[in-house]
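May I ask for whichever protein you like with its backbone structure tokens?
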Amino acid sequence: MTDAHEPIPAAHPVIDQEEIDAAVRVLRSGRVVQGPEVAAFEAEFSDLVDQRHCVAVNSGTSALHLTLLGLGLGPGDEVIVPSFSFAASANAVRLVGADVIFADVEPDTFCLDPAAVEAAITPRTAAIMPVHLYGHPAAMDRIMAIAEQHGLAVVEDACQAHAAALHGTPVGAFGAAGTFSFYPTKNMHSLEGGMVSTADAELARTLRLLRNQGMEQRYANEIVGANMRMTDVAAAVGRVQRGKLDGWTEKRIANATYLSAHITAPNVITPKTAEGARHVFHQYTVRIQGDRDAAMARLTEAGIGNAVYYPTPIHRLRPYWEPDQKAGRTWDLPETERAAAEVVSLPVHPGLSQNDLERIVSVVNTLGEQL
């Protein structure tokens, strides 16, 4: 909670005494890496993904990377990815040697457009990576139908969408695997860390090998692996946060509901939620119709935290546009470009007070007069 004059931060990572006590308890135990806390965290997180197998790793990016490795994707394969996302979504594809194929997003949800996905499929397509952006689930019913028709794997990037769902099915429980991030600004965190969920016991075992140098038993390496383990300190923090997630999620949804009901500026388009979707509002992202820079400057001047996720689509980032330019390849992604030019995320985190919400609304509603 802030007073009437303090800036309202765009995000508010929580590290309370409970998290500190959990970390200290593990540090004093001397069992700090890949131990009982990690196993307990995996078991407790599985409640969020229809009791799928869960494999904890050291980051959301590692979760994506190891999943693609575990599925055997590599050179010669294509993976369909939205360009309107954080670069890690595409980076993981590149890291295994596969080719990134960008598809456009739906204007209301900012998630992969199933029609654009279907149009992007080629004989080399091996997988689809929908991103549940800002906490809104992608159109998984339609995407899964497309994947089944074409024999494609689906890897869900759920790094921003803990506890989101579509028609009652939680994200992370649709595809071959789901991936989550526990970075401090996410809806829950473990200081740093990630998780993979999968219904495939063999894939889960492969992921456990990959995260631990290819070993299940010490010095009995079965495959080539890496060190992407989660520490028990991180897992202990994650367990505390998992216990708070349900309450925090309801508060995020309530905050978003209040903002959408009270923001009336005609040039500020509030978020939409698709029918049957549970949007968990990792971000409360509006569209600004007009001078976005001026709007953000006004918000900042008034002490309202704000940010753009993401101002540059992945296909226009240097590691991607340079190779595409050399290959003479271009992308037609009009909704992606429009979103990148218009979006602004406002505070929605559980730490907001009623006064904070009223301040946000009051300032946002002046934007229509000033732009």
